[in-house]
Amino acid sequence: MNPFELYNPTKLIFGIESYLRISHEIPKGAKILMTYGGGSIKSNGVYDQVLAQLKDFQVLEFGGIEANPTFETLSKALDIIRSEGITFLLAVGGGSVIDGTKFLSAAAYFEGDSWDILKKGIRVSKAMPFGTVLTLPATGSEMNSGAVITRKETGEKLGMGSPALFPQFSCLNPEVIKSLPQLQLKNGIVDAFTHVLEQYMTYPIGAELQDRISESILKTLIYIAPKVIFEPYNLPIASNFMWCCTMALNGLIQKGVPTDWATHMIGHELTAKYDIDHAMTLAIIFPNLWRYKFENKKEKLAQYAERIWDIRTGSIEEKAEFAIQKTVDFLHSIEVKTKLSDYTENYNGFSDEVKKTFEARNWIALGERKDITPDDVKKIVERSY
């Protein structure tokens, strides 16, 4: 196991009455900007419940944050923060709204071009405090300090992060799952599943506890996935789904282990180019990245085969191959497609575009072994057609 530090100051408030705590967690006298997305919070009752808890505060609202939050939209919110003297942010939504709010938190006190935070990888040391009310389990953004933002003008989708960008608190009410359509539920399952895999499917390093926590999240997601997506609402199942999504990316399982994240970096380019849902881009890429880097990952794939899919016979290579197929079968069982051609006919030449983009950004050493080059990315994408 590698040496590590673990820091996560977010207070997580979980349960069907979690919203009742909102007013107690925000500083008295705060001037709040409440951020949200397309307005579903007004139809599912969350909006009214949250506002009821903010009746003693001065509150401004900013809606319309996209499923892939854009710098252009967030810049409008930033103008409000600065002109209206906002002192606290409250994100009410899923990972995209929370990610967008993290950018606003970082940019609020930043001097200079706020896009530089992403473009130059600046880790801000001062940020506006914020809390979250989670309405869509998926990204784990409610309990971590990272975010991904898109700039439409340039077609860039870049990540950011800083210890200053943990939410002060996050309220998680699993009842919100009642109102979510199947596609969003599928996205949440795949997103959380892949988050775990990015931190697990690398190479053995003797981190038994981290591995087994990761495996427990994966096994839970496999068990609950069809129940969450296809069966009527069930509070215990919904609660486990929401908690899995948070645990998949709150920092715990990445400590002391190598991590990959090449799938995410490639997937972001699919979203930027074709506007494919983030989780679906992950399902397109990761099985083919595994196949391409098979020799690097076969030991961990074989472990995954044994512990997740109960594959006990065969060589390391045979178990690893079977594990990849079982994972693709699982995705297909919840009606998630795993080829780029399932989402667009306009894919010819895309691998060359991605290669050039990675070269321009000097992303030349990706993956847990830092051995995935832009040429490798091109080949992985071509396998994913």
Characterise this structure.
The chain is an alpha/beta fold and 385 residues long. It folds into 2 domains: 11-175, Rossmann fold (3-Layer(aba) Sandwich); 182-383, Dehydroquinate synthase-like, alpha domain. The chain is built from 15 helices and 8 strands. It has helices at residues 22-25, 40-43, 46-53, 71-84, 95-107, 116-119, 182-200, 208-230, 235-247, 262-274, 278-292, 294-309, 316-333, 350-360, 374-383, and strands at residues 11-14, 31-35, 58-62, 88-93, 130-134, 146-151, 156-161, 169-172. The strands form 2 sheets. The protein has a 6-stranded parallel beta sheet, sandwiched between helices. Helix 11 packs across helix 15 (374-383) and helix 14 (350-360) runs antiparallel to helix 15. The longest helix is centred in the middle third of the chain and has 23 residues, at 208-230. The mean pLDDT is 96.
CATH homologous superfamily of the largest domain, by name?
Answer: Dehydroquinate synthase-like - alpha domain
Low-pLDDT runs:
none
- Could you say which structural class the secondary elements and strand pairing correspond to? alpha/beta
What is the helix fraction of residues, given as a range?
A: 40-55%
Strand content: 5-15%
Number of strands: 8
The CATH architecture of the largest domain: Up-down Bundle
* H-E order: EHEHHEHEHHEEEEHHHHHHHHH
CATH class of the largest domain: Mainly Alpha
**Largest pleated sheet:** 6 strands, parallel
Tell me the span between the first and last alpha carbons. Answer: 37 Å
CATH topology of the largest domain: Dehydroquinate synthase-like, alpha domain
In spatial order, strands of the major sheet run 1-8-5-4-2-3
| Mean pLDDT across residues | 96
Q: What's the number of helices?
A: 15
Number of domains: 2
What is the CA-based Rg, rounded? 20 Å
Q: Characterize the overall form.
A: globular
